[in-house]
Every structure is written in structure tokens, then in C-alpha cells.
Design goal:
By secondary structure, the chain is α+β, with helices and mostly antiparallel strands. The protein has a domain of 75 residues. Helices cover 14% and strands 28% of the residues. Strand 3 and strand 4 form a beta hairpin. The longest helix has 8 residues. It is globular.
């Protein structure tokens, strides 16, 4: 079965500099992603009007980044969707035992150097 990644819209929030706490979360320069309904309306207004934060909408793959408010099972379901028939599984171990392999001696590849005159 071939899997296709599925992107979702999320709110990306990061701080301009250093670390900054607001609405129970610590924000840094690295964006954190939240579902659109993660914050209450009042919290959303506080975050959007905070001059030390950058808030934007972003398309993200939940399999690649953590999205606050998205359950892990839901992230896996949204991240992959089946697109075709499943492929047959190949066994990882041989079905019949094989002869033990004996190590082979390494060939000597170094050539003798020229002797100085």
C-alpha cells in the first residue's frame, strides 16, 4: 500500500527573541504548532495582539511536526492515507536454514614501496 502525506492547517506561533510565556505556553524562535481550536477566543486575541509573538497560519504535516491539540492517533491518521492496494510482504528471514558461512581471508592489496637510493 502506498501512503500519501496529508497536510493540515495549523496556527504557528513563535517569539521574536529569546523565550516568552503567554497563555500557559513558552514560546521561542522555533515555531510551535497548534490546532485552530486549541486556544479559547480570549486567548487567541491575547496571542494575536502580543507584539513579542509572531502568529501565522501554516500548512504542516502532523507526521513531521508536533501539533498541540491533535491527538497522536489522529495525527497518524491524518498524516497518511492509503492510495492503492497493499504490497505483498517479503520475509526478512530465510524459510530454510542456510549453511554457516566461513569468513574469507582478506586479500593483501598493499604493494611494497620503493627503497630509497
Amino acid at each position: 500500500m502506498t501512503l500519501r502525506k496529508s497536510l493540515i492547517m495549523a496556527v504557528a506561533i513563535s517569539a521574536f527573541a529569546g523565550a516568552f510565556r503567554r497563555c500557559g505556553h513558552a514560546f521561542t524562535k522555533e515555531p510551535q504548532y497548534f490546532t485552530q481550536d486549541f486556544f479559547t477566543k480570549d486567548q487567541s486575541e491575547v496571542l494575536l495582539n502580543e507584539p513579542r509573538l509572531v502568529c501565522r497560519m501554516a500548512e504542516v504535516d502532523p507526521a513531521e511536526v508536533h501539533v498541540h491539540g491533535l491527538e497522536p492517533e489522529a495525527a497518524e491518521e491524518q498524516a497518511t492515507e492509503p492510495t492503492g492496494p497493499s504490497e505483498p510482504e517479503t520475509p526478512t528471514e530465510p524459510s530454510t536454514p542456510s549453511e554457516p558461512k566461513t569468513p574469507t581471508a582478506a586479500k593483501e592489496t598493499a604493494k611494497p614501496g620503493k627503497k630509497g637510493k
